[in-house]
Amino acid sequence: MSLVQVDQQSGTIALSPGDTSYVVRIEADRGTVRQVHWGRRVSLNDALALPPEPGAGDSFADPWDGAEELPVDGGLRFGPPAVEVRYGDGTNPLEPGLEGFDVAADGDVSAEVRIRFRDAHRPLAWTLHYRVRADSGVLERWTTYRNEGPEGTDLLLVRAASAFWNLPVRADYRLSSLHGQWAAEFAVQRRALAVGETTLSSRRGHTGHQSNPWVAVDGGAATESDGEVWCVALAGSGSWRITGVRSPEGRCGVICGVGHEGVELALEAGASWTTPVSVGAYSPEGFGGASRALHAYARGCVLPRAERVRPVLYNSWEATSFEVTFDNQRHLADLAAELGAELFVVDDGWFGRRDDDRAGLGDWTPHRRRFPQGLRPLSEHVRARGMRFGLWVEPEMVNLDSDLYRTHPDWVLHLPDRSPTPQRNQLVLDFSRSDVTDWAFAWLDRTVSDFAVDFLKWDFNRSFSEAGSCADGPDRRAVFVRHAEGFHRVLDRLRAAHPDLEIESCAGGGGRVDLGVLARTDQVWTSDNTDAVDRLRIQHGFSQAYPAQVMSAWVTDSPNAMSGRAVPLRFRFHVAMAGALGIGGDLTRWSPAERREAAAMVGLYKEIREVVQHGRQYRIGVPDDHQHAVGYVAPDRSRAVVLQWRVGAASRGLQPRLRLPGLDPDARYGVEDDSGTLEHLVVSGAALAGHGLPAALPAGPYGSRLLRLRRM
Question: Coil, strand, or helix at residue 278?
Fold first, then answer.
């Protein structure tokens, strides 16, 4: 079946990503397009026979409720609009008229549908974009808004969503989302979707620790492995808003777009603005199936170098904090190389007068006392030990005590009649300004070249306040969107200038994780909390939307500096090996025995990481269970890796067996257990899924093991 099929007479368009179909029907006489089906794959002939959901019959009902692909503010529409405009005369109702549609195909690789609308009497026009790809079961949607009026007919986009995703009518609806706070990100919440509007958002100028731009909706009974689930996510790295809408009549939809309430974008005459992409995925295989669809989409359509395996990195922050010197970094590099690290990253403290967090941000030249000859000697030493060289940077921030701020106080986000409120002794630079982003690119480009930098850890440690752009214009609060666009442009320029440069996105941990930033980076720092037990929950939530290969996970010291919890080194490694492995402890304090054990675990990880980072992921249980596991199955199902953990003392009772989904049921697999519990075991994929393996874990309060399976 083609990626897109069209019946001109009825206006029916069937988009078929993967094994699913998304069917819309254009109603030219009403100036709208409605969704007919989103679910299992159907043929065009079947789609033609599918009637739209019936509308409400009484005169107080909203006849458009839940059916339109992008509901506007205007006409007999009483639900939340996806498009709201303020014209120059202060009015805002829209009267949409259909101008036409077209389909552009790139052979059998991808296809894009464009449906064009225009206000009947005002200058606003907008185009709905739909894209399907042959290698993805995910549908991409976005919208372009254009002011087609003559000079002087400026307007404000009050709401300009990427998409409104209509869901099939079900007896009930449950909303799943990711919430948390700094050091406790990505907690999964599942709750009944109330009648009305349930809005998730970030008002901070970045994606946020408190919520993530991803939701899943099901009928209330889906499980990890069974039941229909619809997922929606947004590729925007600034403020955002996702609203789950449930009408009293029983419809459900999700509005997805950047900006929060009060953020208005000015659209000058002749100008256009294109929203970030919103993606939608459907799976009949529960939350796990929906996650695997998003993971495959990220690898196939988002990540710039998805085929690469992530290197084992060492980061010096917990060892030295701000006390960074050439000598102590050189010594740590020697120890990291002995463990098998492939990338050595110098964290905060290498630049300006950065003796603490009160000074130096903005002055991006090596600290004269600590690196009198610059960073090149350290970079060369790291490379001589067989590792690549990385640096921590925070380009969007400035300390008040810095040469940059003294020279350019006008570059920070501020309002002229409001006092700036420092946090962490710093303010935010206005990346909506081209002169600021040009400055940022220039010093980043120079730093990467001068010091042979292979990797940047790009941090962002402060949310917006008193946020208005210094640029003149009616949309000063648009900086909540425009700043992120400037951030993206700098990343794009940097990657174009240095194609082999690797970048990790960090925002005090997981404060900026979204598909927009993943399109420009190689991995993300999941959380500043490196406690292994806490990380199990954080990583479980992260995996709902994002693949393991971008999830940076460190082994750090015990007791943990944040929680005070003492956890065995083996357990800490097994937790961090579930993603992109890193080490962040003070290696000078590790005993020779610990360093030998760590080197062995790093070597083991290198043997399995291709499966972990590129395989299909299966969550087995949840972190709140006494013991749970995560499995990774290679795309050809020839190999698999399972990591299993128990938090707390071993139970005296019998434990459920560990059943492993996703394997070839007709193949036989040899099983290796790094705990020594299982030896010389060969069993079929069907038996592993249906019957499973003994769940016994090594004794002790924190038991863990790693299983390797290979098709015989």
Answer: strand
Query: Can you tell me the mean pLDDT for 362-366?
Result: 98
Tell me whether residue 226 is one of the annotated catalytic residues.
Answer: no
Q: Give the torsion through C-alpha atoms of 688, 692, 698, 700, to 10 deg.
A: 140
Count CB neighbours of 499 within 10 A.
Answer: 8
CA distance 198 to 217: 12
Which amino acid makes up residue 691? H
> How far, in Å, CA of 554 to CA of 599, rounded?
14
**What pLDDT score was predicted for residue 235?**
98
Q: Return the number of other C-beta atoms located less than 10 Å from residue 308's C-beta.
A: 13
Cβ neighbours of residue 317 closer than 8 Å, sequence gap 6 or more: 347, 348, 392, 584
pLDDT tens digits for range 382-402:
999 999 999 999 999 999 999
Is-contact 501 456, C-beta < 8 A?
yes
User: CA dist 370 to 322, 367, 646, Å?
Assistant: 11, 5, 44
Q: Return the ∠ at Cα 40 (arms to 39 and 46), rounded to 5°.
A: 100
| Catalytic member of 154, 459, 475, 514 | 459
The arithmetic mean of pLDDT across residues 466-482, rounded, is 73
The SS3 call for residue 683 is strand
DSSP string of 78-135, one letter each residue: -S--SEEEE-TTS-----EEEEEEEEEEETTTEEEEEEEEEESSSSEEEEEEEEEETT
Give the pLDDT mean for 675-696: 88
Whether 445 sits among the annotated catalytic residues: the reply is no
pLDDT cut 90: percent of the chain above it: 87
Q: 291: which DSSP letter?
A: H
Asked whether 156 and 85 are in contact (CB, 8 A), the reply is yes
Q: Which of 430, 454, 528, 674 is catalytic?
A: 528
Q: What are phi and psi of 178, to 5 degrees?
A: -115, 125
Q: Check if the beta carbon of residue 511 is closer than 8 Å to that of residue 455.
A: no
pTM over 0.85: yes
- Give the confidence band of 249 by pLDDT, cuts at 50, 70, 90: confident
pLDDT for res 470: 45
H/E/C letters for each residue in 452-512? CCCEEEECCCCCCCCCCCCCCCCCHHHHHHHHHHHHHHHHHHHHHHCCCCEEEECECEECC
Measured CA to CA, the distance from residue 330 to residue 327 in angstroms comes to 5
Q: In degrees to the nearest 10, what's the CA dihedral of 393, 398, 400, 405? A: 120
d(C-alpha 650, C-alpha 652), whole Å: 6
With 70 as the cut, is the pLDDT of residue 682 above it? yes
